[in-house]
Amino acid sequence: MVASSCSKEANKEDTFLYNKANHGNQLKIAIISDIHYMDASLLKNNAASGTAFQAYLDQDPKLIEFSDPIFRQCIKQVIAEKPDLVLIPGDLSKDGELVSHQSMIQLLKQFDNQKIRVFVVPGNHDINNPEAAQYNGNIASPAPSISANDFAKFYAGYGYSNAISRDPHSLSYVAQIIPGLWIMGLDACEYELNKNIAIVGGRIKPETKKWALQWMAEAKKQHVQIFGMMHHGILEHYTGQNQLDPGYVIDDYENTAHDFMLAGLSIMFTGHYHANDITSRKDGDKILYDIETGSMVTAPSPYRIINITGDEMNINTRYVKTISAALPAGLNFPDYSHIFLSDHLDGYLGYAIANPPYSLPSPLVDIGGPLLRNGFIAHFAGDEKITASEQTKVDAFGLMVPPLGDAINALWTDLPPADNSLQIHLKLQ
Description:
Distance between the termini: 22 Å
Number of helices: 12
Largest sheet: 7 strands, mixed
Protein backbone atom coordinates (compact mmCIF):
# COMPACT_ATOMS: atom_id res chain seq x y z
CA MET A 1 0.00 0.00 0.00
CA VAL A 2 1.38 3.35 -1.05
CA ALA A 3 0.70 6.11 1.45
CA SER A 4 0.17 9.69 0.39
CA SER A 5 3.30 11.68 1.13
CA CYS A 6 1.28 14.49 2.68
CA SER A 7 -1.20 12.54 4.79
CA LYS A 8 0.39 13.61 8.07
CA GLU A 9 0.24 17.26 7.14
CA ALA A 10 -3.47 17.27 6.21
CA ASN A 11 -5.35 19.84 8.21
CA LYS A 12 -8.95 19.96 9.40
CA GLU A 13 -10.07 21.87 6.33
CA ASP A 14 -9.81 18.63 4.34
CA THR A 15 -9.30 20.23 0.94
CA PHE A 16 -7.47 17.80 -1.25
CA LEU A 17 -4.70 19.42 -3.30
CA TYR A 18 -2.10 19.51 -0.58
CA ASN A 19 1.04 19.48 -2.76
CA LYS A 20 0.74 23.10 -3.85
CA ALA A 21 4.47 23.60 -4.31
CA ASN A 22 4.68 21.02 -7.09
CA HIS A 23 1.32 21.49 -8.78
CA GLY A 24 0.49 25.13 -8.21
CA ASN A 25 -2.77 24.05 -6.54
CA GLN A 26 -4.23 23.39 -10.00
CA LEU A 27 -5.12 20.35 -12.06
CA LYS A 28 -6.72 20.01 -15.49
CA ILE A 29 -8.59 16.85 -16.50
CA ALA A 30 -10.07 15.93 -19.87
CA ILE A 31 -12.81 13.28 -20.09
CA ILE A 32 -13.49 11.48 -23.36
CA SER A 33 -16.05 8.69 -23.28
CA ASP A 34 -17.59 6.03 -25.53
CA ILE A 35 -15.16 6.46 -28.41
CA HIS A 36 -16.32 3.21 -30.04
CA TYR A 37 -13.26 3.18 -32.25
CA MET A 38 -13.47 0.96 -35.33
CA ASP A 39 -10.30 0.23 -37.24
CA ALA A 40 -10.68 1.02 -40.94
CA SER A 41 -9.53 -2.49 -41.90
CA LEU A 42 -12.85 -3.86 -40.62
CA LEU A 43 -14.71 -2.15 -43.50
CA LYS A 44 -13.76 -3.51 -46.92
CA ASN A 45 -15.18 -3.18 -50.42
CA ASN A 46 -17.58 -0.31 -49.69
CA ALA A 47 -18.93 -2.14 -46.67
CA ALA A 48 -19.92 1.14 -45.00
CA SER A 49 -22.87 1.37 -47.38
CA GLY A 50 -23.43 -2.40 -47.45
CA THR A 51 -26.51 -4.10 -46.08
CA ALA A 52 -24.78 -5.83 -43.16
CA PHE A 53 -23.16 -2.69 -41.72
CA GLN A 54 -26.28 -0.62 -42.29
CA ALA A 55 -28.32 -3.27 -40.47
CA TYR A 56 -25.90 -2.91 -37.54
CA LEU A 57 -26.40 0.86 -37.48
CA ASP A 58 -30.18 0.45 -37.56
CA GLN A 59 -29.96 -1.46 -34.28
CA ASP A 60 -27.22 0.67 -32.72
CA PRO A 61 -27.14 4.15 -34.30
CA LYS A 62 -23.62 5.48 -33.90
CA LEU A 63 -21.20 7.31 -36.20
CA ILE A 64 -18.92 4.28 -36.29
CA GLU A 65 -17.83 4.85 -39.89
CA PHE A 66 -16.24 8.15 -38.82
CA SER A 67 -14.93 7.05 -35.41
CA ASP A 68 -11.31 7.41 -36.55
CA PRO A 69 -11.41 11.04 -37.80
CA ILE A 70 -13.69 12.03 -34.91
CA PHE A 71 -11.29 10.70 -32.29
CA ARG A 72 -8.23 12.08 -34.07
CA GLN A 73 -9.80 15.54 -34.06
CA CYS A 74 -10.71 15.15 -30.38
CA ILE A 75 -7.12 14.19 -29.54
CA LYS A 76 -5.87 17.27 -31.37
CA GLN A 77 -8.27 19.55 -29.49
CA VAL A 78 -7.58 17.98 -26.11
CA ILE A 79 -3.81 18.22 -26.52
CA ALA A 80 -4.25 21.93 -27.32
CA GLU A 81 -5.98 22.29 -23.92
CA LYS A 82 -2.82 20.92 -22.22
CA PRO A 83 -4.55 18.81 -19.55
CA ASP A 84 -2.60 16.95 -16.90
CA LEU A 85 -4.55 13.78 -17.51
CA VAL A 86 -7.27 12.19 -19.63
CA LEU A 87 -9.98 9.89 -18.25
CA ILE A 88 -11.79 7.45 -20.56
CA PRO A 89 -14.77 5.72 -18.87
CA GLY A 90 -15.06 2.76 -21.24
CA ASP A 91 -16.23 1.64 -24.68
CA LEU A 92 -12.93 2.45 -26.30
CA SER A 93 -13.73 0.09 -29.19
CA LYS A 94 -16.71 -0.58 -31.45
CA ASP A 95 -17.23 -4.15 -30.25
CA GLY A 96 -13.98 -5.26 -28.68
CA GLU A 97 -12.19 -6.10 -31.93
CA LEU A 98 -8.53 -6.91 -31.41
CA VAL A 99 -7.44 -4.68 -34.28
CA SER A 100 -9.51 -1.75 -32.95
CA HIS A 101 -7.83 -2.01 -29.55
CA GLN A 102 -4.42 -2.24 -31.21
CA SER A 103 -5.11 0.96 -33.13
CA MET A 104 -6.47 2.65 -29.99
CA ILE A 105 -3.19 2.01 -28.19
CA GLN A 106 -1.32 3.71 -31.02
CA LEU A 107 -3.63 6.71 -30.88
CA LEU A 108 -3.27 7.07 -27.12
CA LYS A 109 0.49 7.36 -27.58
CA GLN A 110 -0.16 10.89 -28.84
CA PHE A 111 -1.06 11.79 -25.25
CA ASP A 112 2.01 9.94 -23.97
CA ASN A 113 4.18 12.03 -26.28
CA GLN A 114 2.80 15.18 -24.67
CA LYS A 115 3.33 13.84 -21.12
CA ILE A 116 -0.43 13.65 -20.57
CA ARG A 117 -1.38 10.71 -18.37
CA VAL A 118 -4.34 8.57 -19.45
CA PHE A 119 -6.55 6.34 -17.29
CA VAL A 120 -9.12 3.94 -18.73
CA VAL A 121 -11.71 1.39 -17.62
CA PRO A 122 -13.50 -1.12 -19.85
CA GLY A 123 -17.00 -0.66 -21.21
CA ASN A 124 -19.56 -3.30 -22.10
CA HIS A 125 -18.38 -3.33 -25.74
CA ASP A 126 -14.67 -3.81 -25.04
CA ILE A 127 -14.04 -7.37 -23.82
CA ASN A 128 -15.04 -10.90 -24.82
CA ASN A 129 -17.55 -9.47 -27.24
CA PRO A 130 -19.30 -12.07 -29.44
CA GLU A 131 -20.53 -9.21 -31.65
CA ALA A 132 -17.01 -8.26 -32.80
CA ALA A 133 -17.32 -8.17 -36.58
CA GLN A 134 -15.65 -7.29 -39.84
CA TYR A 135 -17.53 -6.26 -42.95
CA ASN A 136 -16.78 -7.08 -46.58
CA GLY A 137 -19.25 -5.61 -49.03
CA ASN A 138 -22.66 -6.79 -47.86
CA ILE A 139 -21.32 -9.58 -45.65
CA ALA A 140 -20.49 -9.51 -41.94
CA SER A 141 -18.25 -12.12 -40.32
CA PRO A 142 -16.76 -12.56 -36.84
CA ALA A 143 -13.59 -10.69 -35.92
CA PRO A 144 -11.14 -11.59 -33.13
CA SER A 145 -11.97 -9.95 -29.80
CA ILE A 146 -9.88 -9.65 -26.62
CA SER A 147 -10.08 -11.11 -23.11
CA ALA A 148 -10.03 -9.34 -19.77
CA ASN A 149 -6.38 -10.29 -19.32
CA ASP A 150 -5.64 -8.86 -22.76
CA PHE A 151 -7.34 -5.58 -21.81
CA ALA A 152 -5.18 -5.19 -18.70
CA LYS A 153 -2.04 -5.92 -20.75
CA PHE A 154 -2.99 -3.66 -23.65
CA TYR A 155 -3.82 -0.75 -21.34
CA ALA A 156 -1.13 -1.47 -18.76
CA GLY A 157 0.24 2.04 -19.13
CA TYR A 158 -3.19 3.59 -18.73
CA GLY A 159 -4.02 2.77 -15.13
CA TYR A 160 -3.06 -0.84 -14.52
CA SER A 161 0.73 -1.12 -14.32
CA ASN A 162 1.23 1.68 -11.79
CA ALA A 163 -1.87 1.08 -9.68
CA ILE A 164 -1.69 1.35 -5.91
CA SER A 165 -4.09 -1.59 -5.83
CA ARG A 166 -5.70 -4.00 -8.30
CA ASP A 167 -8.95 -5.74 -7.45
CA PRO A 168 -8.38 -9.50 -7.95
CA HIS A 169 -12.04 -10.01 -8.92
CA SER A 170 -12.35 -7.46 -11.74
CA LEU A 171 -10.45 -4.93 -13.84
CA SER A 172 -10.83 -2.32 -11.09
CA TYR A 173 -7.86 -0.42 -9.70
CA VAL A 174 -6.77 2.53 -7.58
CA ALA A 175 -4.03 4.81 -8.89
CA GLN A 176 -2.47 7.98 -7.56
CA ILE A 177 -2.85 11.01 -9.79
CA ILE A 178 -0.87 13.30 -7.51
CA PRO A 179 -0.20 13.12 -3.78
CA GLY A 180 -3.55 13.77 -2.13
CA LEU A 181 -5.67 12.59 -5.07
CA TRP A 182 -6.47 9.05 -6.22
CA ILE A 183 -8.56 7.73 -9.09
CA MET A 184 -10.58 4.56 -8.56
CA GLY A 185 -11.36 2.87 -11.87
CA LEU A 186 -14.30 0.52 -11.35
CA ASP A 187 -15.10 -2.35 -13.69
CA ALA A 188 -18.85 -3.04 -13.56
CA CYS A 189 -19.10 -4.91 -16.87
CA GLU A 190 -20.42 -8.48 -17.22
CA TYR A 191 -18.25 -9.65 -20.12
CA GLU A 192 -17.53 -13.00 -18.47
CA LEU A 193 -21.22 -13.85 -18.98
CA ASN A 194 -21.31 -12.93 -22.69
CA LYS A 195 -22.47 -15.71 -24.98
CA ASN A 196 -24.30 -14.79 -28.18
CA ILE A 197 -24.54 -11.06 -27.46
CA ALA A 198 -22.71 -8.57 -25.29
CA ILE A 199 -24.51 -7.81 -22.03
CA VAL A 200 -25.39 -4.13 -21.80
CA GLY A 201 -26.07 -3.98 -18.06
CA GLY A 202 -23.57 -3.77 -15.26
CA ARG A 203 -23.05 -4.57 -11.61
CA ILE A 204 -20.32 -4.25 -9.05
CA LYS A 205 -19.44 -7.69 -7.75
CA PRO A 206 -19.77 -8.08 -3.95
CA GLU A 207 -16.04 -8.77 -3.69
CA THR A 208 -15.26 -5.69 -5.78
CA LYS A 209 -17.57 -3.53 -3.69
CA LYS A 210 -15.84 -4.71 -0.51
CA TRP A 211 -12.45 -3.92 -2.05
CA ALA A 212 -13.66 -0.47 -3.18
CA LEU A 213 -15.06 0.42 0.24
CA GLN A 214 -11.78 -0.61 1.90
CA TRP A 215 -9.85 1.75 -0.37
CA MET A 216 -12.33 4.56 0.15
CA ALA A 217 -11.80 4.08 3.89
CA GLU A 218 -8.03 4.14 3.36
CA ALA A 219 -8.34 7.37 1.36
CA LYS A 220 -10.33 8.97 4.17
CA LYS A 221 -7.78 7.77 6.72
CA GLN A 222 -4.97 9.38 4.75
CA HIS A 223 -6.96 12.58 4.02
CA VAL A 224 -6.82 11.77 0.31
CA GLN A 225 -9.54 12.79 -2.15
CA ILE A 226 -10.69 9.90 -4.33
CA PHE A 227 -12.53 10.23 -7.65
CA GLY A 228 -14.41 7.28 -9.08
CA MET A 229 -14.60 6.33 -12.76
CA MET A 230 -16.95 3.66 -14.10
CA HIS A 231 -18.60 2.95 -17.43
CA HIS A 232 -22.14 2.48 -16.10
CA GLY A 233 -24.05 5.12 -14.18
CA ILE A 234 -24.29 5.01 -10.41
CA LEU A 235 -27.39 7.25 -10.42
CA GLU A 236 -30.40 7.60 -12.72
CA HIS A 237 -30.03 10.57 -15.05
CA TYR A 238 -33.75 11.05 -15.53
CA THR A 239 -36.68 9.83 -13.50
CA GLY A 240 -37.52 6.23 -14.36
CA GLN A 241 -34.44 5.67 -16.54
CA ASN A 242 -33.90 2.18 -15.20
CA GLN A 243 -37.47 1.22 -16.09
CA LEU A 244 -37.66 2.88 -19.50
CA ASP A 245 -34.17 1.89 -20.63
CA PRO A 246 -32.65 -0.74 -18.30
CA GLY A 247 -28.98 -1.61 -18.31
CA TYR A 248 -27.43 1.84 -18.04
CA VAL A 249 -27.14 2.21 -14.29
CA ILE A 250 -25.57 -0.55 -12.23
CA ASP A 251 -27.72 -3.13 -10.46
CA ASP A 252 -28.68 -2.09 -6.93
CA TYR A 253 -27.49 1.43 -7.69
CA GLU A 254 -29.46 3.00 -4.84
CA ASN A 255 -27.69 1.01 -2.13
CA THR A 256 -24.31 1.19 -3.83
CA ALA A 257 -24.54 4.98 -4.20
CA HIS A 258 -25.54 5.28 -0.53
CA ASP A 259 -22.69 3.05 0.67
CA PHE A 260 -20.09 4.82 -1.47
CA MET A 261 -21.27 8.21 -0.22
CA LEU A 262 -20.98 7.11 3.39
CA ALA A 263 -17.48 5.88 2.59
CA GLY A 264 -16.54 9.34 1.34
CA LEU A 265 -16.99 9.24 -2.45
CA SER A 266 -18.40 12.45 -3.92
CA ILE A 267 -17.40 12.27 -7.61
CA MET A 268 -18.06 9.46 -10.10
CA PHE A 269 -17.18 9.95 -13.77
CA THR A 270 -19.31 7.77 -16.06
CA GLY A 271 -20.36 7.24 -19.68
CA HIS A 272 -22.39 4.46 -21.36
CA TYR A 273 -25.69 6.27 -22.10
CA HIS A 274 -24.10 8.69 -24.60
CA ALA A 275 -25.67 11.64 -22.78
CA ASN A 276 -23.77 14.66 -21.51
CA ASP A 277 -25.58 14.79 -18.20
CA ILE A 278 -24.76 15.42 -14.55
CA THR A 279 -26.99 14.29 -11.74
CA SER A 280 -26.54 14.14 -7.97
CA ARG A 281 -27.86 12.57 -4.80
CA LYS A 282 -27.79 13.89 -1.26
CA ASP A 283 -27.86 11.86 1.93
CA GLY A 284 -27.78 14.20 4.90
CA ASP A 285 -24.70 16.37 4.56
CA LYS A 286 -23.15 14.10 1.94
CA ILE A 287 -23.50 14.43 -1.83
CA LEU A 288 -22.53 12.27 -4.80
CA TYR A 289 -22.24 13.59 -8.36
CA ASP A 290 -22.56 11.25 -11.34
CA ILE A 291 -20.74 13.18 -14.08
CA GLU A 292 -21.66 11.41 -17.31
CA THR A 293 -19.88 12.37 -20.51
CA GLY A 294 -21.49 11.88 -23.92
CA SER A 295 -20.09 9.81 -26.76
CA MET A 296 -17.69 10.74 -29.53
CA VAL A 297 -19.93 8.92 -32.04
CA THR A 298 -23.27 10.41 -30.94
CA ALA A 299 -24.24 14.02 -31.63
CA PRO A 300 -23.14 16.48 -30.41
CA SER A 301 -19.82 14.57 -29.86
CA PRO A 302 -18.89 16.20 -26.54
CA TYR A 303 -15.94 15.86 -24.21
CA ARG A 304 -15.26 17.61 -20.94
CA ILE A 305 -12.49 19.84 -19.65
CA ILE A 306 -12.33 20.05 -15.87
CA ASN A 307 -10.20 22.64 -14.12
CA ILE A 308 -9.55 22.13 -10.42
CA THR A 309 -8.16 25.04 -8.47
CA GLY A 310 -7.80 24.46 -4.76
CA ASP A 311 -11.04 22.79 -3.78
CA GLU A 312 -13.13 24.17 -6.67
CA MET A 313 -13.91 21.94 -9.64
CA ASN A 314 -15.04 23.75 -12.78
CA ILE A 315 -16.61 21.48 -15.40
CA ASN A 316 -16.99 22.67 -18.99
CA THR A 317 -18.03 20.97 -22.20
CA ARG A 318 -16.25 21.09 -25.53
CA TYR A 319 -17.31 19.57 -28.87
CA VAL A 320 -15.82 18.04 -31.97
CA LYS A 321 -17.22 20.27 -34.71
CA THR A 322 -15.07 19.40 -37.70
CA ILE A 323 -13.42 16.23 -38.95
CA SER A 324 -11.03 15.36 -41.76
CA ALA A 325 -13.47 13.30 -43.80
CA ALA A 326 -15.83 13.95 -46.69
CA LEU A 327 -19.43 13.85 -45.52
CA PRO A 328 -22.54 13.18 -47.65
CA ALA A 329 -24.01 16.13 -49.51
CA GLY A 330 -21.08 18.29 -48.43
CA LEU A 331 -22.61 18.74 -44.97
CA ASN A 332 -20.55 20.02 -42.08
CA PHE A 333 -20.00 17.63 -39.21
CA PRO A 334 -22.52 19.04 -36.67
CA ASP A 335 -25.31 19.05 -39.27
CA TYR A 336 -24.48 15.60 -40.58
CA SER A 337 -24.21 14.04 -37.13
CA HIS A 338 -27.54 15.57 -36.05
CA ILE A 339 -29.32 14.34 -39.19
CA PHE A 340 -27.75 10.91 -38.81
CA LEU A 341 -28.88 10.59 -35.19
CA SER A 342 -32.37 11.93 -35.90
CA ASP A 343 -32.97 9.63 -38.88
CA HIS A 344 -31.67 6.51 -37.14
CA LEU A 345 -33.57 7.23 -33.93
CA ASP A 346 -36.78 7.56 -35.96
CA GLY A 347 -36.33 4.05 -37.29
CA TYR A 348 -35.12 2.60 -33.99
CA LEU A 349 -37.80 4.17 -31.80
CA GLY A 350 -40.56 3.69 -34.35
CA TYR A 351 -39.86 -0.02 -34.41
CA ALA A 352 -39.67 -0.17 -30.60
CA ILE A 353 -43.07 1.39 -29.94
CA ALA A 354 -44.79 -0.43 -32.82
CA ASN A 355 -43.90 -3.75 -31.16
CA PRO A 356 -44.48 -5.24 -27.69
CA PRO A 357 -44.84 -4.08 -25.02
CA TYR A 358 -46.36 -0.93 -26.60
CA SER A 359 -47.66 -2.28 -29.94
CA LEU A 360 -48.95 1.10 -31.02
CA PRO A 361 -50.86 1.49 -34.30
CA SER A 362 -49.17 3.38 -37.13
CA PRO A 363 -50.92 6.73 -36.52
CA LEU A 364 -49.68 6.81 -32.90
CA VAL A 365 -46.20 5.65 -33.95
CA ASP A 366 -46.06 8.56 -36.39
CA ILE A 367 -46.88 10.97 -33.56
CA GLY A 368 -44.95 9.41 -30.68
CA GLY A 369 -41.77 8.42 -32.51
CA PRO A 370 -40.63 11.97 -33.32
CA LEU A 371 -41.55 13.16 -29.82
CA LEU A 372 -39.43 10.44 -28.25
CA ARG A 373 -36.63 11.19 -30.70
CA ASN A 374 -36.62 14.86 -29.77
CA GLY A 375 -36.55 13.98 -26.08
CA PHE A 376 -33.58 11.65 -26.48
CA ILE A 377 -31.64 14.14 -28.60
CA ALA A 378 -32.23 16.84 -25.99
CA HIS A 379 -31.12 14.53 -23.19
CA PHE A 380 -27.97 13.50 -25.07
CA ALA A 381 -27.00 17.18 -25.44
CA GLY A 382 -27.73 18.05 -21.80
CA ASP A 383 -29.36 21.08 -20.16
CA GLU A 384 -32.70 20.06 -21.65
CA LYS A 385 -35.39 22.73 -21.91
CA ILE A 386 -38.60 21.96 -23.75
CA THR A 387 -40.40 24.62 -25.78
CA ALA A 388 -44.04 25.45 -25.15
CA SER A 389 -45.09 24.09 -28.54
CA GLU A 390 -43.25 20.80 -27.99
CA GLN A 391 -44.76 20.48 -24.51
CA THR A 392 -48.23 20.89 -25.98
CA LYS A 393 -47.58 18.01 -28.39
CA VAL A 394 -46.18 15.82 -25.61
CA ASP A 395 -49.18 16.54 -23.38
CA ALA A 396 -51.59 15.60 -26.16
CA PHE A 397 -49.73 12.37 -26.90
CA GLY A 398 -49.56 11.59 -23.18
CA LEU A 399 -53.36 11.62 -22.97
CA MET A 400 -53.42 8.85 -25.59
CA VAL A 401 -50.43 6.82 -24.35
CA PRO A 402 -49.74 7.83 -20.72
CA PRO A 403 -46.65 5.65 -20.12
CA LEU A 404 -44.83 7.06 -23.14
CA GLY A 405 -46.00 10.57 -22.37
CA ASP A 406 -44.44 10.20 -18.93
CA ALA A 407 -41.24 8.87 -20.49
CA ILE A 408 -40.95 11.81 -22.88
CA ASN A 409 -41.54 14.28 -20.07
CA ALA A 410 -38.86 12.52 -18.01
CA LEU A 411 -36.34 12.87 -20.85
CA TRP A 412 -37.06 16.59 -21.09
CA THR A 413 -36.95 17.14 -17.30
CA ASP A 414 -33.34 17.94 -16.55
CA LEU A 415 -32.55 16.75 -13.04
CA PRO A 416 -30.24 19.12 -11.16
CA PRO A 417 -27.52 20.24 -11.36
CA ALA A 418 -26.53 21.80 -14.70
CA ASP A 419 -25.02 19.46 -17.28
CA ASN A 420 -22.57 21.31 -19.51
CA SER A 421 -21.06 23.90 -17.21
CA LEU A 422 -20.89 23.43 -13.44
CA GLN A 423 -18.79 24.38 -10.44
CA ILE A 424 -18.47 21.90 -7.58
CA HIS A 425 -16.92 22.57 -4.20
CA LEU A 426 -14.73 19.60 -3.28
CA LYS A 427 -14.43 18.55 0.31
CA LEU A 428 -13.55 15.26 1.90
CA GLN A 429 -16.74 13.62 3.19
